[in-house]
Amino acid sequence: MTLLALGINHKTAPVALREKVAFTPDSLVEALASLKKLDGVEESVIVSTCNRTELYVNTQDESGQKLLQWLSDFHRLDVEDIANNSYVLTQDEAVKHIMRVASGLDSLILGEPQILGQVKQAFGDAKHSGMINSEFDKLFQHTFSVAKRVRSETDIGANAVSVAYAAVQLAKHIFAELPKRSVLLVGAGETIELVAQHLKEQGVSCLAVANRTVARAEALAETLDASVYTLSQVPEHLKDFDIVISSTASQLPLIGKGMVEKALKQRRNMPMFLVDLAVPRDIESEVNELGDAYLYTVDDLQHIVQKNLENREQAAKEAEKLIDKQAGDYMTWKQSQQSIDLVRQYRQKGMAQRDDIVEKAKAQLAEGKNAETVLEEMAYKLTNTLLHPTTLALREAAMHDDPALSRWMGQALDLSDFSSDNNK
Length: 424
What we know:
The chain is of the alpha/beta class.
């Protein structure tokens, strides 16, 4: 059996194709059931996210052509479109790939942590569908362990690599007890949604959303259990917030120096942290002139993000070494299991041949044949039957004129002492 990975991701295919080959939760159940019926497939896991669709299978199809055809048939797509935008990896390369994916090394954002949970979910779905046996159970449990080690033993996830996350991490450095702080989010677009998500992950509960369109603000606030303001209400309530993060499409600043100065006086000069993620700016640059106001712009955060990306890339090199070692360990284990299976099959075959010859000998004795003759015939047949495959292998080695192979087989069969005795 061959471990094979067939995949399409953000590096190999445009989003239009990635959308077509993605699996919904409902179609995933159907897909796993369909794969179970595919000839030559023993185990399978389907990982499907917004940036990738990957099939991991234990199969007799080393080329991946059957799997490629199955994927195109399932989604009713042209097989050439998938073939031209996909990749096929086998054995140790497939093992390294799933470990890299689970560790965030193959993600659009290097080191992002969500993918590990997605791979775990994919494994759980496959196990629930009866598509996991001992080999894949060992592979994926080992993969999860490696991914955890990558995150704990390297700095792959230690630094912010999006301006939204960088803004929250910066706030966390400035305010020791971030969950206790009040935060005003100005705007309700994608960037503010990401900021809100990171704030919730940090345990911040006192949140408010201000936006030009109240309905949009209410939709976001509902997911956060947050208060809602119009932009015209911001000057009145600005004093109530320790942290202000703004990202709108306004062409003019929404928060000026005078507004912040007034709020600081009402706060009795308690510090205020402001982050302007908008281009053009939402917050006047002169705010930085105020003693208790700490203003950071998107440019400031981009410098942080760039430095952090460089740090992650260095951490990724360390992670790659760890993965190479762990993938090698898994393949060594797999090969040892294969050798155990060969030994088991060899012994079972030998014992079956022995039992067959012994039964025939017993039958001959029951018919009254001479016992000594029967024993001699049984010994001859048993020896000839058991030695025949080994004799063929020795002849094959000799025909290849490979002294090293012949010498190895001689040692494996313990023939050196016998050869020495015959030469005396």
